[in-house]
Design goal:
The chain has 369 residues and is an alpha/beta fold. Helices cover 32% and strands 21% of the residues. It is built from eleven helices and twelve strands. Strands 4, 5, 6, 7, 8, 9, 10, 11 and 12 form a nine-stranded mixed beta sheet that branches. Helix 3 crosses helix 11 and helix 5 packs parallel to helix 6. The longest helix has 18 residues, at 336-353. It binds adenosine-5'-diphosphate.
Length: 369
């Protein structure tokens, strides 16, 4: 079989005109991240909001051209949004569905500097708490390295293909929330080895090839950490803002600062920081134990000027219910944790709709970076 090279791909792409009529898609700088694996070619095509409509047909044309190259049997072209320096997170005009994803008003990322801090648990309970404010909510699991959203929602099985829209899939629905995850599509024990462009194209497919209903907010559970993959995701997904989850430990805070820096780099406003596993209320002795120290996130948030959204204590019920697919906000409406997550949700929504997101994340210098 013929070996496909980057030059082969570039030379066919050079024959395709850019949407503004100035040169071709390559000379206009719209093509990035070309990755070739055997007969599969993947790359990103950058679009801007004013070209969003024409770009979908351009993507089709580009895919077709690439499929015409000898040796190519699959072409995955991800449309990615261009973000000008002034654009990220500026308040959206009222009434406009502004995320670039049809029907979805706001996309927010839930991120953490490292794994295991409760990012996915927070994403799920925040999404459910947003529904309790009478908002329509969707969840996209972008944590391709360890997709835990299906388990947290207690969802199994595969998404059904859409009857209407070609190769689109229907999201799964639980507790009134539409959910899509790569975890629905690959067996649980499959090791997933991803490279940057693959993550982008998998995510773009999950985002754009799902038949989402209307949603006020889509909560995106990001992969943990602040590496290149996360940075690209933050940059190329039209986010209204980001919530950072941190535990009180110093180390986690340093990681949280890296998270803040990452969003600052790509002009995505940080909605605020949630301190998870903040303290433990002992049901036996009645005392409050501050296992990892306490208050660090709040102090840090005020020091760097990022809003502090609240403290979520360690709680065995949170863990047990997460593990059994019955998240506390959905199943224990009267619990303390439910009230705490609702309080976070109210602040998030106020921030999205109250026009408090004009300012990008503060830029912080982390030692050793
Ligand atoms: P991450 O997405 O950051 O890797 P998870 O949300 O998967 O983290 O949480 C890691 C583990 O910690 C899970 O077992 C989860 O149930 C547990 N957990 C998260 N938040 C809490 C909490 N506030 N109290 C008790 N357990 C928690």
């Amino acid at each position: 079989m013929a070996t496909v090279t980057q030059d082969d791909v570039l030379s066919v792409l050079r024959r395709i005109a850019a949407p503004d009529g100035r040169g071709n898609v390559v000379s206009a700088g719209l093509v990035s991240g070309i990755a070739i694996q055997g007969g599969t070619v993947m790359f990103a095509l950058t679009t801007s909001p004013q070209h969003a409509k024409t770009m979908e047909s351009l993507r089709g044309a580009v895919e077709k051209a690439v499929l015409g190259i000898k040796g190519v049997d699959k072409a995955m072209v991800a449309l990615t949004a261009e973000r000008g320096p002034q654009q990220g997170g500026l308040p959206q005009p009222q009434g406009q569905r502004g995320s670039g994803i049809p029907g979805i008003k706001h996309l927010i990322a839930v991120a953490s500097g490292k794994g295991g801090v409760g990012k996915s648990t927070t994403a799920v309970n925040l999404a459910l708490a947003l529904t309790s404010l009478n908002l329509k909510v969707a969840v996209l699991d972008a944590d391709v390295y360890g997709p835990s959203i299906p388990k947290l929602f207690g969802l199994t099985g595969k998404p059904e293909p859409s009857e209407a829209a070609g190769k689109k899939m229907k999201p799964m629905t639980r507790y009134g929330v539409e959910v899509m995850s790569i975890g629905f599509l690959v067996p649980e024990d499959t090791p997933m080895i991803w490279r940057g462009p693959m993550v982008m194209s998998a995510l773009t497919q999950l985002l754009r090839e799902t038949e989402w209903g209307e949603a006020d907010v889509m909560v995106i559970d990001m992969p943990p950490g602040t590496g290149d993959v996360q940075l690209t995701l933050a940059q190329q997904t039209p986010l209204s803002g980001a919530v950072i989850v941190s535990t009180p430990q110093d180390l986690a805070l340093i990681d949280a600062r890296k998270g803040l820096n990452m969003f600052a780099k790509v002009n995505v406003p940080v909605i605020g920081i949630v301190e998870n596993m903040s303290y433990f209320n002992c049901t036996k002795c009645g005392e409050r134990h501050e296992i990892f120290g306490h208050g660090g996130a709040k102090e840090e948030a005020s020091r760097i000027g990022a809003p502090f959204l609240g403290e979520i204590p360690l709680d065995t019920d949170v863990r047990r219910r997460s593990d059994s697919g019955e998240p506390i906000v959905a199943t224990q409406p009267g619990a303390l944790h439910t009230a705490l997550y609702r309080n976070v949700a109210r602040q998030v929504w106020a921030s999205l709709e109250g026009g408090q997101l004009g300012r990008p994340a503060p830029r912080i210098v982390v030692d050793g970076q």
